[in-house]
Amino acid sequence: MKEVNSIRIDPIVKRLLSYATSEEKVEAEYKKYTCSPNRKLFSTEVNGEIVSCIGVEFHNFEKGVIKHIAVLPIKRGSGIGRSMIKFICSKYKLKSLLAETDKDAVLFYSSLGFQITSLGEKYPGVERFLCELRTSTLT
């Protein structure tokens, strides 16, 4: 994995971020990664092509929050998401990692040992979930 810090957004990274947020917000979210010292964006390459990204906001030296995580559809289910999370936890020696997600991603986070808590219907008709991992339980 390598850190993404170019001022100009790579088209593949832009596409990946659009899977994790609305297309209208991609540019603003990307700018936060290039301008904020407590946010980092990483990408994974397979055969020289970017296939995934993970963006994390660090709240202190022991806690991180996944802001964006995305894998190209053709590469999903191959362990890339799991390896990105393990990389972040290891590189930054995190004791806890949080993510807020929808119902579609709950099984993914649960399979990694995240504790899942319903946040209820934050938006009309959309239940959201808080996923929290104590990194000592990372499977």
TrEMBL record:
It comes from the Bacteria. Pfam families: Acetyltransf_7. CDD domains: NAT_SF. This is GNAT family N-acetyltransferase. Signal peptide: none annotated. Residues 1-132 form the N-acetyltransferase domain.
